[in-house]
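Human: Note token order:
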Amino acid sequence: MKTLIAIVLAFFALNSFAASTPVYEETNYSSGQVDGSFGINEELGRAWVELAIWSGFQSDDSGPDYKRVKVEGLSLVGGSVVLNVEGQQIECAKVRPVGIFHYRVAKSTGKCKFKSQTIKKTVDDGFETRTVRVLKVTLETK
């Protein structure tokens, strides 16, 4: 019995993999915070990523900058937001009714996490080079 359990656990460990899918990149970014969620259109069967970006350039009373980004491999399949990575489908969110009017939204399953990092990148415009700060947002799968 212990051998069977060990074989099943090894099978799932070998089949699960982590992947990083690029979502968004913005230059001249000052440090801040990025929150991500999933947007859906059930009638058309589409899903996308919605980012709320708080930059260091904004004052305290201004809100975040919102971006809607189409991600390669992200789709709506049978009530779930699914990311297709190298032939495997990872369920990133489930579509659920919320509120008194049962408005349907995509609630994250925790299998896909948004990761943001600020890096320095050298940009060549054909005349000279300069270093700029770049915000990179990726979708990390477990």
User: Anything to note?
Assistant: The longest strand covers residues 112-124.
